[in-house]
Amino acid sequence: MSDQHQQIKKKYGLVRGLGLFEAIAVNMANLVGMGQFITMPLIIAAMGGPQCMLGWLAGTVLSICDGMVWSELATAMPGSGGTYLFLKESFKTSRLGMLLPFLFIWQFIVSGPLEVGSCYIGFVQYMSYFFPSWGPWQNRILTVALGVLAIVLLYRQIHSIGRLMLLLWAGMLLTVGAVIGSGVIHMAHFGPGPALDFPPGALSFSMGFALGLGRAMLIAMFDFLGYYSVCYVGGEVRNPERVLPRAIFYSAIGVALIYSVMNFSVMAVVPWREAVQSKFIVSEYMEKLYGTRAAGVMTILVLWTAFAAAVPVLLGYSRIPYAAALDGYFFKPFARLNAKQFPYVSLLVMGILSIVAGLVNLEWVISAMLTGRILIQFIAQIFAVHYLRKYRTDIERPFKGWLYPVPNAIALLGWTYIFVTSGWGFMAFGVGTLGAGVLAFWLWRRGAGLPAFAAPEEA
């Protein structure tokens, strides 16, 4: 690489200790979380049968095309911060240079807690396998207790948190492996069975089919979120111009295979007409295969996985508003550290909002989280690549998306399709989040005595 790019790496880099294997592990740790254990019934219901696998296929194509966008931006700006850094640097020479990074952090204050809250919802759902008589109040108390416990565990220095993460992820990988292994063994002996029980007209195109596919893609992309997670710590990756694109693509393809096999395995054991009604589908799956004792053990592992997914996500997301506030792109209180040197204001705000999100309906949480992000994060990044290529020729791009602009156009169409098929209420939520962010930005800048749209910086 040129001297210019080496200087960028030094400017943004911390200790570059993550190689390809570690970078893939960072992505996979975020990808293989709680989503697939709670969304299987939802994605089956979205399309009304095994044809829901088309949602996974479309999600895989979208993830790979969107991975081109992430790869081009991450290798051009190999620092930590992900989308926040990309929007800040790409549009630095435009009047949107302050607004877009702020809007990204703003939507993260909304969508981040929704993602953590979905883990709490999944925990409560699977707990009902052991306590089917529990009512709404017991479930709410459990949700609050989980949220408080997550905050308490993270209210400490990062060194002790690292050991906790290893323990939590070990249980998560064991759970996923048990589900896939059991399904493969079953299908080897008895075949796919109910997994190929398509209803009449399952693949006939209609408006209902188009809306169902959009809904299935939305749920699939909720489960896919994380194929780009290493970009948030890009400043700690060795040879980012080579490692980051490979980590993104390998992770997206690997998790697509894992999730597809998991869903197909479950439908091969639990008929899809039963599966759509289940609140603890994996427990019922293991019960049909091995009985109630095995189902109880699996339920405990899923509960472990639910909490294991919530804690690291809350940890990472609590650092994003902190970093932006430290740079002067978000409200100053989020930059405060306590005596143990961690951003306690950001952690408490994200943690409390996550508890609130955990008290809401799962389908609403998933739809609101995706529609809240699509406009401000995923679509904005697609335009960032265009702006980078046309106006920021001073920034070197070690990775150039293959067949540009075709993958970017597919990503734009895919995210737009998911957005417009999410329903009027969620479209309004996404647009409303964007509008509220613009208003908050104007109030913030006015309160600081600064112009809303400052003059652009020189390249």
General description of the model:
- α4 (53-76) packs across α15, α5 (83-90) runs antiparallel to α6 and α12 (281-290) runs antiparallel to α13 (292-326).
- Helices cover 71% and strands 0% of the residues.
- By secondary structure, it is an all-alpha fold.
- Mean pLDDT is 85; it is low at 158-162.
- The chain has one domain: Amino acid/polyamine transporter I, CATH 1.20.1740.
- The chain has helices at residues 3-12, 20-31, 35-47, 53-76, 83-90, 99-127, 136-154, 158-190, 207-224, 240-269, 272-275, 281-290, 292-326, 344-357, 362-391, 406-420, 424-447.
Instruction: Summarize the helix and strand pattern as letters.
Output: HHHHHHHHHHHHHHHHH
- Global Rg: 22 Å
Structural class, please? mainly alpha
The top level CATH class name: Mainly Alpha
Largest sheet: none
- What's the total number of strands? 0
Distance between the termini: 20 Å
Stretches with pLDDT under 50, minimum 5 residues:
158-162
**Annotation field: number of helices:** 17
Q: State the CATH architecture.
A: Up-down Bundle
**How many individual domains?**
1
CATH topology: Amino acid/polyamine transporter I
Shape: globular
Oligomer: single chain
Q: On the 0-100 scale, what is the average pLDDT?
A: 85
Q: What portion of residues is helical?
A: over 70%
